[in-house]
Amino acid sequence: MKVPARIVRYGLLRVPDGLAPAAAALLDPLASVLRGLGAGAVAGQTVLLLGAGPIALLFTSS
């Protein structure tokens, strides 16, 4: 797969040395969860999670 140069330049981050690939792979889904939690959900509220993918599963463990 060929990735356009502008995507490589502005859309990719280098994984720091010493960070395990498995941990690096979770950073983007975790960032989505943290952004969602900061979007106004209040402890004790009922929310609807659609799907059982990694982002929904991270939400359930928050």
Largest sheet: none
- Average pLDDT score: 85
Shape: elongated
Order of helices and strands: HHH
Quote the beta fraction.
Answer: under 5%
> Roughly what percent helix?
40-55%
Q: How many angstroms separate the termini?
A: 35 Å
Count the E strands: 0
Tally the helices: 3
**Which spans have pLDDT < 50 for at least 5 consecutive residues?**
none
Structure description:
The chain has a domain at 18-60. It is built from three helices and no strands. The protein has 62 residues and is mainly alpha-helical. Helix 2 packs across helix 3 (54-60). 50% of the residues lie in helices and 0% in strands.
Which features does this protein show?
0% strand; single chain; mainly alpha; 62 residues; 3 helices
Question: What is the compact description of this entry?
Answer:
By secondary structure, the protein is mostly helical.
Topology:
Layout: H1 5-11, H2 21-37, H3 54-60
Helix pairs in contact: 2-3
